[in-house]
Amino acid sequence: MVLPMKLLVCVKQVPESENQILIDDGSAWIKSDEICDFKMNRLDEFAVEEALLIKATFSDTKIDALSAGPERSTEVIRRSIGMGADAGIHIRTESVGYHSSFEIAGWIAEYARGEPYDLILTGALSEDNMQGQVGPMIAKQLSLPWATAVIFEKIASDRKTIYVEREIEGGQRDTLELPLPAVLTIQSGINTPRYPSLSNLLRANKQGLNRIDAADLEQLAVPENLVELVYPRKTRAGTFLKGTEEEKATQLVRILRERALLP
């Protein structure tokens, strides 16, 4: 007898790219209260969509969407349900400040340890921190096999293994077959994320979420600290040439000769 599958998709709320990012007075984190718009991390949308495609193949599959963060993070959980996920879990943090990948992975792993998930999916990286560490750290803490930057996956008919292709340098692909349960970080381009349907959004707004306080989960010793947040420093100034085309060409040749780039 083949048992139904259960998937966990980890999603993150990030600022919209059009927002101006300001550092707080203590250089400890960004001024999130001055950011007008937040959204679901783009690569997490591909992870949600891939879970839905798996469910289309194995119709008895159940999908949980999880996000760790402040109260506003429930928006991306409900968007995941709007796309088609079955249930949502919110690991609620008291602070809106910086939380390391290690902390977030630890909370997710602590929750997932008690659940019979066959597959845990995350985006390949987040648009804000761009570290790509949460997925592998979850796998490490749960002692599960894992693959990053997955651009293709197919679960075997017996649901015991999964074949994956992961994107590597030079446009090449690395192929793996992993036993389930496993952790995958999903690369952009693997699919085309759908828009949430109106009926699912209405369901998401009415549906209760499983809310867990991060403080109630086992706290692991964090091996890193955020020392300071700074704006990128300008290291080189550009030179604008003025005048007619002939004058600018003469100036350019002179500059190149001064720097020994022309004889």
**Number of discrete domains:** 1
Largest sheet: 9 strands, mixed
Give helix and strand order, one letter per element, not per position.
EEEHEHEHEHEEEEHEH
**Overall geometric form:** globular
Mean pLDDT across all residues, rounded? 91
Seen as an oligomer or otherwise, the chain set is single chain
* Total beta strands: 11
CATH H-level superfamily: HUPs
Walk me through the structure.
By secondary structure, this protein is α/β, with parallel strands linked by helices. The chain has a single domain, classed as Rossmann fold (3-Layer(aba) Sandwich). The chain has six helices and eleven strands. The protein has helices at residues 42-57, 74-83, 101-112, 134-142, 198-206, 245-258, and strands at residues 6-10, 13-15, 38-40, 62-69, 87-92, 119-123, 146-155, 161-167, 173-179, 182-186, 210-213. Strands 9-8-7-10-6-1-4-5-11 form a nine-stranded mixed beta sheet, sandwiched between helices. It has a two-stranded antiparallel ribbon with strand order 2-3.
Please outline what is shown here.
It is built from 6 helices and 11 strands.
Topology:
Blueprint: E1 6-10, E2 13-15, E3 38-40, H1 42-57, E4 62-69, H2 74-83, E5 87-92, H3 101-112, E6 119-123, H4 134-142, E7 146-155, E8 161-167, E9 173-179, E10 182-186, H5 198-206, E11 210-213, H6 245-258
Parallel strand pairs: 1-4, 1-6, 4-5, 5-11, 6-10, 7-10
Antiparallel strand pairs: 2-3, 7-8, 8-9
Helix pairs in contact: 2-5, 3-4
